[in-house]
Amino acid sequence: MATSQIEKVREFLTCVICHELYTDPCTLRCDHTFCRKCVTKFIQTRPDTVQSKTIPCSFCRQDTKVPHPSRPVEEWAGQIKPSIIIQGLIDTLGAEGDEPETSSTCCRICQQIGETTPGVLWCPECEVALCDRCVKTHRVSPMSQNHDLCDLSSRSKGRRRVKCTEHKSSNVEFHCKDCQKPACQTCCIIYHRACKTVVTIESMKPEMKTVLLEKRFGMGKKLEVGSKKVEMKNEKLQNSSRITELTVQNIKSICQTAINKIKQKETQLMDELNHITQTYAGQLRSGVKLDEIEMQMYRQHCEFIDQALVSDCEMDLYDAYQAWESGAVELGDVRDTDTADTRRIDDIRFAPDTANVQHILDDLQLGKIDVTYQDEGTCLPSPVRVDVIDGKMADDKKQPSLTDVTVLVVDGIQTVVVTDQVNKCVKSLYTRNNQPCHSRLPLDDSPHGVTQLKEKQVMAAVPGSRQIVTVEVTPDLVLLSTITTSKEYYSLAVLCPSSLAAGHGYGLVMVTAFLTSWIWRDTC
After folding, report:
1. How many domains does the chain have?
2. Are residues 449 and 350 located together in one domain of the fold?
3. Are residues 13 and 78 in the same domain?
4. Is 352 found in the same domain as 465?
């Protein structure tokens, strides 16, 4: 494999975190590959990943879920599947790249004339290895005398050079702030000759680092807010599932109660029908029995009469005749006496009240499901606490009593300015280079209200000494001026650059201050 091809493959197989060839490579869900040890170190620098139970990609910030988050954080990267293909390429590069790697340590200039001389230094600008003899020539050459040489072992960690897209032989080393474009030396001469602010990219490193740190801090805050919002929504989702289960149980319970009431009514109707049916059957059976007795007695009398008729004895006829005349044969009076006290059932029918039952079912109200909707146009999302700043400082003699607060953005740094009534001072709290910082401005008396006057200035009311002080925020605090007033003002609010509103203990008072000439005039 050619040396140039090996270098290209080596770039493809280099971890963007440690800038070395992959060691035990593993690929995240976003298809970006890193060394497994680098992933573990990156996780340890991000405490928010422990809460989200995910592994963020250091390149694109996309999250990868941890299969077993209950295991120690040091073992999370070990749960990611290894990248077998990339490991195979690394092994192949190790087998095929021994000779080119050895040749890359030789002086490149000597190789061009057919000599093999061990290199001693590496030029990141030219990306070549140089021997002792060629180093001297390299340092006196006008084109390369300003190149910084480094040890061969540090060549992979040298500064990355970017070629100009228009002038292929020149590196991008400058930045035009007027055009907001990168440029090489030739571009500066041709296109940016009239521009006023053309600086080297090297000189912009502190500024770029500061801006990136501030951006990183802001994005970190947004990530925290987003993470808390997602956590809150997940909690709402879980609560919604629990509430749904309870609601289903309540609906089933009240429906079952209604069903039980209907079944109770059914049982009552069935019991009533059974009682009436048994009474009716008993009356019918009693009537049948009386009829059978009556028929039996009629048979006996018929036989008695028949015997008298066939007898030749006139006394037998006379006895039969006397029995009929005396009414001994009639049983109707006995039947009527036995059933006089009992109402006889003639028929049994069920008349369903279908219309009334249907009306009751239609009007049956088992309950109501209420839904509250969030109006995106008028309702704001629920506030989420992002950070807590301790207002106590080393020079405080007592526990702080922070009376008022205002927030400024000074040179891209978010600065919180508060008044401490107990410790008689104004404080500024901010974060720089991911480190919490603060400043303290002592006053003669206790300050109360504070308001922003200009981009880097605030005004604070000191009612005890009847003063209003103007403070510059850099974001450290610097006292600019003091105005003496005729009243004790506790709160301030800037209305426009030339006037402000102030309030004292007896009501809100509108006052006018000519801030440019510092002439104070009470209008109350």
Report:
1. 3
2. no
3. yes
4. no
DSSP secondary structure of 205-221 = HHHHHHHHHHHHHHHHH
Q: What is the 8-class DSSP label of residue 349?
A: -
Using a 10 angstrom Cβ sphere, with 0-12 exposed, 13-18 middle and 19 or more buried, the burial of residue 210 is middle
Based on the domain organization, do 406 and 358 belong to the same domain?
A: no
| Residue range(s) defining the domain that contains residue 418 | 402-522
Per-residue pLDDT of the chain (524 residues; tens, 9 = 90+): 455 666 767 777 888 888 888 888 888 888 888 888 888 888 888 877 778 888 888 888 888 888 888 888 888 888 887 777 787 777 766 545 444 444 557 888 888 777 888 888 888 777 788 898 888 888 888 878 778 788 776 555 455 677 888 887 788 888 898 899 998 888 888 888 888 888 888 888 888 888 888 888 888 888 889 999 999 999 989 988 888 898 899 889 989 988 999 999 999 999 999 999 998 898 889 889 998 998 998 888 888 888 888 887 888 788 878 877 776 555 555 455 555 456 788 888 888 888 888 878 777 777 777 777 666 554 555 555 666 788 888 888 888 989 899 998 888 788 999 999 999 999 999 988 778 889 999 998 999 999 998 888 999 999 989 899 999 999 899 999 998 888 888 888 888 766 788 887 655 555 555 444 344 545 44
Measuring CA to CA, which residue among 107, 127, 102 is closest to residue 8?
127
Task: Using a cut of 0.85, tell me whether the model's pTM lies above it.
Answer: no
Are residues 444 and 330 located together in one domain of the fold?
A: no
